[in-house]
Amino acid sequence: MSDLILHQDPRSGNCYKIALTAALLGIPLTIRDYDIMKGETRTPDFLADVNGNGRIPVLQIGDKFLPESNAACWYLAQGSPLVPDDRFQQADVLRWMFFEQYNHEPNVATLRFWLRFIGQDKLSDAQQAQIPAKRAAGDAALKLMDGHLARNDWFVGEGATLADIALFAYTHVCEQGSFALDDYPAVRRWLARMAAQPGFVAMEQ
Amino acid sequence: MSDLILHQDPRSGNCYKIALTAALLGIPLTIRDYDIMKGETRTPDFLADVNGNGRIPVLQIGDKFLPESNAACWYLAQGSPLVPDDRFQQADVLRWMFFEQYNHEPNVATLRFWLRFIGQDKLSDAQQAQIPAKRAAGDAALKLMDGHLARNDWFVGEGATLADIALFAYTHVCEQGSFALDDYPAVRRWLARMAAQPGFVAMEQ
């Protein structure tokens, strides 16, 4: 058993980022599964012991807890080729990881969660009202990615980095949120490059 | 003139993070101001030359452009005490920076922008409808920070890091977005510690 424990829901792309990072680096993780649809990350024990924010993933390192998917990936990948040493490239990896959390995940991942896991007929009026804006913002994020990937094989430098892992997680299942990968041919080719990486593991869904 | 150019709107807390990081580290920046209220970051030239995402801040380093406030701070602060070398602490700094962009900024900064710079009477119906949810989520973020700061002087380790800078930017002006600092006494004490840091500069507003 690894002393690194990933507290996760396997359907979450944010959790998958960490599992994929560990797989590409050959780092074993112990997995603890929670069902977010049943509120298992909002119990008093979870809030007190794992994450007061009530969210997964959390990477547990001994008696320390690290929330935020991209921070957990960073913990695992420091010193590996997934985090470039070059000063600009390292910051540029973070540039795409912050873009992912601010412009991509709240739109692409949220629509997947609403449409695939909750179901459009069960959404609140407030959620229904947000769908057009989230679809437009998600398409804008995918378009920006496609433009970059039409000129570059990877987001930063000449190989896969955490920027690619962070953006792969929800992009490769974006059609579950009603986005059309056919609109983004350079993204589609990059998804295939990612899936061909040595050690790659697919997401459970 | 510095060869580091900050493309910014001085009223933006995201831009201020970079200016504050540079000031605490004694790094000179050349400033280029844009007025986001007049669409100056959506012109064809800006989109082509500075940031296809149409957003500021962007840190220009020679002929390279780095969007995303927290990534720009990282570029400036690598190798300084603002980015700890320790593996867990470095990831933990990023944990708070991702929390800032995901849980804090879209609520605390957005309400400030809507209420102070647009004006409540000029908001769209969709924006009006989102105010209660954004206020609740912003208060949840401030409450989580207050709980941490009741037990710790700083977000990570024994001194200020980029985690503190990222969270300071919009927290110290949160009352402009209708949040009440009196509800968060540990946050208020931490704001005073930040303002007493050598080299600290105040935000233009």
Verbal overview:
Two copies of one chain form a homodimer. In chain A, strands 2-1-3-4 form a four-stranded mixed β-sheet, covered by helices on one side. In chain A, α4 runs antiparallel to α5. By secondary structure, chain A is of the alpha+beta class. In chain A, a hairpin with a 2-residue loop joins β3 and β4 (64-67). In chain A, 53% of the residues lie in helices and 8% in strands. The A-B interface holds A 52-53, 61, 64, 66-72, 74-75, 78, 87-88, 90-92, 94-95, 97-99, 101-103, 105-106, 126, 129-130, 133, 144, 147 and B 52-53, 61, 64, 66-72, 74-75, 78, 87-88, 90-92, 94-95, 97-99, 101-103, 105-106, 126, 129-130, 133, 144, 147.
The first-level CATH class of the largest domain in chain A is given as Mainly Alpha
Distance between the termini of chain A: 24 Å
Helix fraction of chain A by DSSP (H/I, runs of at least 4): 40-55%
What global shape of chain A is seen? Answer: globular
Strand content of chain A: 5-15%
Question: What descriptors fit this protein?
Answer:
four-stranded mixed β-sheet; Glutathione S-transferase Yfyf (Class Pi), Chain A, domain 2; homodimer; 53% helix; globular; 2 domains; 7 helices; 205 residues; alpha+beta; Glutaredoxin
Furnish the topology, listing elements before pairings.
Two copies of one chain form a homodimer.
Chain A: E1 4-8, H1 13-25, E2 30-33, H2 44-49, E3 58-61, E4 64-67, H3 69-77, H4 87-118, H5 125-151, H6 162-171, H7 185-195
Parallel strand pairs in A: 1-2
Antiparallel strand pairs in A: 1-3, 3-4
Helix pairs in contact in A: 1-3, 1-6, 4-5, 4-6, 5-7
